[in-house]
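ok so I'm stuck.
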Amino acid sequence: MQPNLKKLESLSQLRPSSIEPKSKENRITLLATHTNDFPVSVKRAQVVMAASFRWLLQLHKDVPRAAHFYSEGLGFTINVCTLRWAELQSGPLNLALMQSPNPDDSITQKGYSSHLSFTVTDINTTVTKLKALGAELDGPIKYEIHGKVAAMRCIDGHALGLYEPA
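replied:
not stuck anymore, here's the structure
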Protein backbone atom coordinates (compact mmCIF):
# COMPACT_ATOMS: atom_id res chain seq x y z
CA MET A 1 0.00 0.00 0.00
CA GLN A 2 1.37 3.43 -1.02
CA PRO A 3 1.55 5.96 1.90
CA ASN A 4 -0.49 9.16 1.45
CA LEU A 5 0.71 12.67 2.33
CA LYS A 6 -1.87 14.53 4.38
CA LYS A 7 -1.72 18.12 5.71
CA LEU A 8 -2.91 18.32 9.28
CA GLU A 9 -4.09 21.51 10.99
CA SER A 10 -3.12 20.39 14.49
CA LEU A 11 -1.29 17.64 16.27
CA SER A 12 -4.52 16.46 17.88
CA GLN A 13 -5.43 14.88 14.55
CA LEU A 14 -2.53 12.45 14.89
CA ARG A 15 -2.53 9.11 16.71
CA PRO A 16 -1.04 8.42 19.21
CA SER A 17 -2.21 11.50 21.10
CA SER A 18 1.02 11.71 23.12
CA ILE A 19 2.60 13.95 20.45
CA GLU A 20 2.23 17.58 21.56
CA PRO A 21 3.55 20.85 20.09
CA LYS A 22 6.38 22.60 21.96
CA SER A 23 4.36 25.79 22.23
CA LYS A 24 0.67 26.38 21.71
CA GLU A 25 1.49 29.91 20.50
CA ASN A 26 3.51 28.60 17.55
CA ARG A 27 1.67 28.32 14.29
CA ILE A 28 2.73 25.01 12.82
CA THR A 29 2.14 22.99 9.72
CA LEU A 30 2.34 19.24 10.02
CA LEU A 31 2.82 16.75 7.25
CA ALA A 32 2.15 13.16 8.17
CA THR A 33 2.74 10.08 6.10
CA HIS A 34 0.05 7.62 7.06
CA THR A 35 -1.32 4.21 6.27
CA ASN A 36 -4.81 3.33 7.46
CA ASP A 37 -5.02 6.54 9.57
CA PHE A 38 -1.93 5.69 11.62
CA PRO A 39 1.05 8.03 11.19
CA VAL A 40 4.27 6.49 9.99
CA SER A 41 6.33 9.69 10.20
CA VAL A 42 5.65 13.30 11.16
CA LYS A 43 7.48 16.41 9.94
CA ARG A 44 7.09 19.75 11.69
CA ALA A 45 7.62 22.89 9.61
CA GLN A 46 8.19 26.19 11.43
CA VAL A 47 6.25 29.06 9.89
CA VAL A 48 8.35 32.19 9.60
CA MET A 49 6.38 35.38 10.23
CA ALA A 50 6.88 38.14 7.68
CA ALA A 51 7.80 41.59 8.93
CA SER A 52 4.82 43.88 9.22
CA PHE A 53 4.86 47.38 7.79
CA ARG A 54 4.99 50.02 10.53
CA TRP A 55 5.14 53.39 8.74
CA LEU A 56 6.72 55.44 6.00
CA LEU A 57 8.81 58.29 7.40
CA GLN A 58 9.24 61.71 5.82
CA LEU A 59 11.44 64.55 7.05
CA HIS A 60 9.85 67.99 7.14
CA LYS A 61 10.88 71.49 8.17
CA ASP A 62 7.54 72.23 9.87
CA VAL A 63 5.82 69.05 11.09
CA PRO A 64 2.46 70.57 12.12
CA ARG A 65 2.20 72.35 8.74
CA ALA A 66 3.01 69.09 6.91
CA ALA A 67 0.42 67.20 8.99
CA HIS A 68 -2.16 69.86 8.10
CA PHE A 69 -1.18 69.51 4.41
CA TYR A 70 -1.80 65.74 4.36
CA SER A 71 -4.93 65.99 6.51
CA GLU A 72 -6.67 68.78 4.60
CA GLY A 73 -5.32 67.96 1.15
CA LEU A 74 -5.56 64.18 1.06
CA GLY A 75 -7.84 63.27 3.95
CA PHE A 76 -5.28 61.65 6.27
CA THR A 77 -6.30 61.20 9.90
CA ILE A 78 -3.87 62.81 12.36
CA ASN A 79 -3.28 60.39 15.26
CA VAL A 80 -0.39 62.29 16.93
CA CYS A 81 1.08 65.70 16.19
CA THR A 82 3.79 67.59 18.05
CA LEU A 83 6.32 70.17 16.87
CA ARG A 84 8.83 67.41 16.03
CA TRP A 85 6.75 64.29 15.27
CA ALA A 86 3.41 63.35 13.72
CA GLU A 87 1.67 60.08 12.93
CA LEU A 88 -0.99 60.09 10.23
CA GLN A 89 -3.10 57.36 8.71
CA SER A 90 -4.91 56.78 5.44
CA GLY A 91 -6.42 53.31 5.20
CA PRO A 92 -3.64 50.81 5.87
CA LEU A 93 -0.88 53.40 5.26
CA ASN A 94 0.80 54.92 8.32
CA LEU A 95 2.80 58.05 7.54
CA ALA A 96 5.21 59.42 10.14
CA LEU A 97 6.47 62.98 9.84
CA MET A 98 9.63 63.99 11.67
CA GLN A 99 11.31 67.35 11.96
CA SER A 100 14.42 67.45 9.82
CA PRO A 101 17.59 67.37 11.95
CA ASN A 102 18.89 70.33 9.95
CA PRO A 103 15.86 72.39 8.82
CA ASP A 104 18.11 74.88 6.98
CA ASP A 105 19.13 72.27 4.40
CA SER A 106 16.86 71.33 1.55
CA ILE A 107 15.29 68.05 2.62
CA THR A 108 15.24 66.62 -0.88
CA GLN A 109 18.48 68.17 -2.21
CA LYS A 110 20.21 64.81 -2.79
CA GLY A 111 17.13 63.09 -4.14
CA TYR A 112 16.42 61.23 -0.89
CA SER A 113 12.70 61.76 -1.16
CA SER A 114 9.82 59.41 -0.80
CA HIS A 115 7.29 59.18 -3.59
CA LEU A 116 3.74 58.70 -2.36
CA SER A 117 1.14 57.77 -4.95
CA PHE A 118 -2.59 58.23 -4.35
CA THR A 119 -5.75 57.19 -6.20
CA VAL A 120 -8.25 60.07 -6.11
CA THR A 121 -11.82 60.45 -7.33
CA ASP A 122 -11.34 63.95 -8.83
CA ILE A 123 -7.79 64.85 -9.82
CA ASN A 124 -8.58 68.47 -10.74
CA THR A 125 -10.17 69.22 -7.35
CA THR A 126 -7.33 67.47 -5.50
CA VAL A 127 -4.64 69.38 -7.44
CA THR A 128 -6.40 72.68 -6.72
CA LYS A 129 -6.71 71.84 -3.02
CA LEU A 130 -3.05 70.76 -2.71
CA LYS A 131 -1.80 73.85 -4.56
CA ALA A 132 -3.78 76.05 -2.15
CA LEU A 133 -1.97 74.25 0.70
CA GLY A 134 1.47 74.96 -0.81
CA ALA A 135 2.14 72.06 -3.21
CA GLU A 136 3.51 72.56 -6.71
CA LEU A 137 2.36 70.81 -9.85
CA ASP A 138 5.39 69.12 -11.45
CA GLY A 139 4.29 69.30 -15.09
CA PRO A 140 0.80 69.20 -16.56
CA ILE A 141 -1.93 66.71 -15.70
CA LYS A 142 -1.62 63.88 -18.21
CA TYR A 143 -4.65 62.23 -19.76
CA GLU A 144 -3.73 58.58 -20.34
CA ILE A 145 -5.93 55.75 -21.65
CA HIS A 146 -6.18 54.27 -18.13
CA GLY A 147 -6.93 57.60 -16.45
CA LYS A 148 -5.54 60.98 -15.40
CA VAL A 149 -2.10 61.29 -13.80
CA ALA A 150 -0.46 64.22 -12.02
CA ALA A 151 2.97 64.65 -10.44
CA MET A 152 3.28 67.13 -7.59
CA ARG A 153 5.71 68.23 -4.89
CA CYS A 154 4.46 68.71 -1.33
CA ILE A 155 5.39 71.73 0.79
CA ASP A 156 8.88 70.32 1.54
CA GLY A 157 9.54 68.93 -1.94
CA HIS A 158 8.54 65.26 -1.52
CA ALA A 159 7.11 63.74 -4.69
CA LEU A 160 3.37 62.99 -4.80
CA GLY A 161 1.65 61.08 -7.56
CA LEU A 162 -2.07 61.39 -8.17
CA TYR A 163 -4.12 58.97 -10.24
CA GLU A 164 -7.77 59.19 -11.25
CA PRO A 165 -8.90 55.97 -12.95
CA ALA A 166 -10.75 56.31 -16.25
